[in-house]
Amino acid sequence: MNRILSRLPALLLALSCHAAFLAPAQARDAATLPALSPRQQALMATVVGNAAHPRILQVRLDELHPTQAAIGYDQVYYKLGRYAAEEQHIAHIAKPKKFADLCEANGQGDVLPGTANVAGATLAAPPPGYRCKAAVASRPDDMKTVVIGPRGVLYLTDGHHTFSTFRAADGGRNGQLQVWVKVSDNFSALSEPAFWARMQQESKVWLKNGRNQPITPQQLPSSIGLQSLGDDPYRSLVYFTREVGYAPPGHATEFLEFYWADWLRAQPAPDLARVNRLDPAAYAGAILQAAQAMVALRPDAIVSGGKRAADLGALDEIDHEALDELTQEKGKLRYAIGYRKSLPRQ
């Protein structure tokens, strides 16, 4: 016993030295990080609500970090094209689409007629009379969601297209536009590796780029918007097949459209590399081919990532009326193509 006790100081010294060698990297990382701001501290202390009574936060668009590397640019171009077209005769538009979209995103239903149709009004600086039908979060199912990560970073898990559209609208002057979002989870107590492991485990991140190549969490862009997110043309294609070849089921899986896009890439047709997406007829033909492939699937057929066609909302037959609406003069496809044509050639 005396022999052991005599060696105790040396053992303690050895253990303390060992701990000192384990911690330097962590200590070094902590030392290089800036102090938490009051905003970060408040976000980290956020208590999450539930589905019936979600916790909501008001955030700036430039605070949001994406959980996917790409979006379908043509989906955004449809909205931007429509916004621009309405601006040309805004006095005659009772409910401007961009303000209707803002009301919906904030869980407030539609915009009240005649309250936002003022020339030059922006989302960040709406007309004084701008009103929505309901109070913020009255319709929480329409709201976008965020996860609070380490150091209070806000990760957007739903709404990349909507908020990227808002940011690009009005000449790109809406970076500091404030919107309301729902908090689905607060994982701020986790380390970075544990955080991303949890996000992947709960399917709250899509780790593929616009060419469907695998990426790491560290390769995700640091902000939302057309300037940072890549373009996935198959994601746009899936957007246009909505209600034509599939309809999202209630409580749809996260990243539902990306599962369809992943699957469509492997099909013999349509091959978007061979489609002139500035030609309405050619683009509509590709949408029809995609929808035909969707409705031909058995309900139990595996599409992608273990998801069945039924899980992803495949329809039994093509809705030709919905397809025709896309190519009308004021259809989504026409607005998207019109806006794409207005962009400088690269």
Give a quick set of tags describing it.
two-stranded parallel sheet; 346 residues; disordered N terminus; alpha/beta; 9 strands; five-stranded mixed sheet; single chain
What's the topology here?
Layout (H helix, E strand, L loop, with lengths): L1 H21 L1 H9 L5 H7 L10 E6 L3 E3 L3 E2 L1 H15 L9 H9 L39 E4 L5 E5 L1 H13 L5 E9 L5 H10 L28 E2 L1 H9 L14 H10 L14 H16 L6 E3 L2 E2 L11 H8 L4 H11 L4
Parallel strand pairs: 2-5, 3-7, 4-6
Antiparallel strand pairs: 1-6, 4-5, 8-9
Helix pairs in contact: 4-6, 4-12, 8-9, 8-10
Distance between the termini: 81 Å
Radius of gyration from the alpha-carbon trace, in angstroms = 24 Å
> How helical, in percent, are the residues?
25-40%
Order of helices and strands: HHHEEEHHEEHEHEHHHEEHH
User: Per the principal axes of the C-alpha atoms, what is the gross shape?
Assistant: globular
Describe the structure.
It is built from 12 helices and 9 strands. The protein is globular, with a radius of gyration of 24 Å. It has a 5-stranded mixed beta sheet with strand order 1-6-4-5-2, with no helix packed on it. Strands 3-7 form a two-stranded parallel sheet. It has a two-stranded antiparallel ribbon with strand order 8-9. With 346 residues, it is α/β, with parallel strands linked by helices. Strand 8 and strand 9 form a beta hairpin.
Short description:
This protein is α/β, with parallel strands linked by helices. Helix content is 40%, strand content 10%.
